[in-house]
Automatic annotation (TrEMBL):
It comes from Raphanus sativus (Radish). One of its GO terms (molecular function) is hydrolase activity. It comes from the Eukaryota. Residues 24-246 form the Phospholipase/carboxylesterase/thioesterase domain. InterPro entries: AB_hydrolase_fold (IPR029058), PLipase/COase/thioEstase (IPR003140). This is Acyl-protein thioesterase 1.
Length: 255
């Protein structure tokens, strides 16, 4: 069986009424053991993600590549483009758009909710996509979204490339207030990778994200800096992700 693309309609709307774009699916060419939702960066779409992922030697993974809604983005002076949530200048004082984060996390969870029970599910992404992947991971650990509604997807792995962790300041206190949250945090594996020459999302945000997760009790966090790498991916980085996923998810015949 060869890789095949399936394009799915949108129809789902975010909390502010922005409609999510088209979803692209790369089906496994081997036994279906895992499904991962992969999230693109600001201004991109699910199609470009699927083209990258279909070339990876992970025959047992089904990739779901949704497209974010087109919305006004504060970072761009209100100019509309595809974005998982609203974001201003990337800085230590960045204010989180919890409503937008929750809406996108719920859309992603809905995409994973119909996967077979024997298939392991995970989330990954690049830049803003990595941010929503990490936010979803904290929702999994806490068992709820930022708005308090229950989060019910049993995530098994998270990949974040060139991104940041929304809500990092308050994460530790939230995790430590719940034994169940602490157990989930300690259990889920997370890999973060970041270029040291990233001038869009500086590497220190990746380092801070990894440190914040570790301090909050996420015991299986790996942080990989890539010397001289800017705000993009390279084969060496993706190869590391491939081997990490195959190992952490116990995939057969990968790599």
């Amino acid at each position: 069986m060869s890789y095949s693309h399936q394009s799915m309609g949108s129809g789902s709307r975010s909390a502010r009424g922005y409609e999510f774009g088209r979803t692209y699916v790369v089906r496994p060419k081997g036994k279906h053991q895992a499904t991962i939702v992969w999230l693109h960066g600001l201004g991109d779409n699910g199609s470009s993600s699927s083209q990258l992922l279909e070339s990876l030697p992970l025959p047992n993974i089904k990739w779901i590549c949704p497209t974010a809604p087109s919305r006004p983005v504060s970072l761009l002076g209100g100019f509309p483009c595809t974005a998982w949530f609203d974001v201003g200048e990337i800085s230590e004082d960045l204010r989180d758009d919890i409503e937008g984060l929750d809406a996108s996390a719920a859309h992603i969870a809905n995409l994973l909710s119909t996967e077979p029970t024997d298939v392991k599910v995970g989330i990954g992404g690049f830049s803003m996509g990595a941010a929503i992947a990490l936010y979803s991971t904290t929702c999994y650990a806490l068992g709820r979204y930022g708005n308090g509604l229950p989060y019910t997807i049993n995530l098994r792995a998270t990949v974040g490339l060139s991104g940041w962790l929304p809500g990092w300041r308050s994460l530790r206190s939230k995790i430590e207030s719940s034994n169940e949250a602490a157990r989930r945090a300690a259990w889920i594996p997370v890999i973060l990778a970041h270029g040291t020459s990233d001038d869009v999302v500086p590497c220190r945000f990746g380092e801070t994200s990894a440190h914040s997760l570790a301090m909050a009790g996420f015991r299986q966090v790996v942080f990989k800096p890539y010397e001289g790498l800017g705000h993009y991916t390279v084969p060496k980085e993706m190869n590391e992700v491939v081997h990490w996923l195959a190992s952490r998810l116990g995939l057969e015949g990968s790599c």
